[in-house]
Write a structure and sequence with these properties.
mainly alpha, 106 residues, 2 helices
């Protein structure tokens, strides 16, 4: 049988049709599998992003709490320094009065 005669025969056309249908089906299956895998990877990435956001929010809360503690400590220290300033002033005034009284006595 001549190749050209076979190429134009019903068997060749049937084989070509079947081969193309199988090829299209395989390509469709591959596309479906890759699509599912891509979707799974995107879901995992979204879950990781949500976890990262949650962890970042926790860190922000901790940082805010620490900032508040430092602010309270600073406020307390400021009050102590103000009291120390007043005590120093009062001691200076008392020292001045004692010195003045001693000078009058002498």
């Amino acid at each position: 049988m001549n190749f050209l005669n076979w190429w134009n025969s019903k068997d060749a056309i049937s084989l070509a049709s079947t081969t193309s249908q199988v090829a299209v089906a395989l390509i469709g299956i591959i596309a479906l599998v890759l699509g599912i895998r891509s979707s799974q990877l995107q879901d995992r990435q979204q879950q990781q992003n949500l976890l990262d956001i949650t962890n970042a929010k926790k860190e922000v809360v901790k940082a805010n709490e620490r900032t508040q503690q430092l602010e309270r400590g600073t406020a307390t220290l400021t009050i102590y320094l103000m009291h120390l300033g007043w005590l120093t002033y009062l001691l200076e005034q008392l020292n001045h009065r004692i010195s003045s009284s001693l000078e009058r006595l002498l």
